[in-house]
Design brief:
There is one protein chain. By secondary structure, the protein is α+β, with helices and mostly antiparallel strands. It contains three helices and nine strands.
């Protein structure tokens, strides 16, 4: 976190550490949220109000789930905005990711976002008020 913050000031980087009852590993990482300041600025200034949130499973060496947020820019190209790596897809990790995404989205634009989310159950307590919300299976 500190390296990202030093090289990209005002970026949103969050890592909660949870203690684990293991003498050789006193802390364990369950999730991380990263949104670099240039990506946030680009989202707010040049992108359309449509963003997509999706997840994919990480396999082989790293087990977990990669959560990502993309938007459409003026040329209808995908513009990556935020990433998260979580231990699994459950309510707690989605709430963590969506809470920090909400904070990024509120940084300089009205709450006029259309969000595409592949979750069957949206966690409404953590979303900002948006005009439209769609769900789809895959981006």
């Amino acid at each position: 976190c500190e390296v990202v913050r030093a090289s990209n000031p005002n970026s949103a980087v969050e890592i909660p550490w949870y203690p684990e009852n293991h003498p050789e590993r006193p802390l364990f990482l369950s999730c991380i949220f990263i949104s670099l300041k240039p990506c946030t600025d680009g989202l707010i200034t040049i992108c359309r109000g449509l963003i997509g949130v999706d997840s994919t499973f990480l396999k082989v060496d790293f087990v977990g789930v990669l959560l990502s947020v993309v938007a459409l820019d003026g040329n209808n190209e995908m513009f990556p905005t935020a990433w998260g790596i979580v231990s699994g897809e459950d309510e707690e990790t989605w709430k963590f990711f969506l809470y920090h995404l909400k904070n990024v989205l509120q940084q300089g634009r009205d709450n006029n976002w259309c969000i595409i989310l592949d979750r069957h159950k949206a966690y409404n307590d953590f979303w900002i008020e948006v005009g439209r919300r769609y769900r789809m299976k895959h981006l």
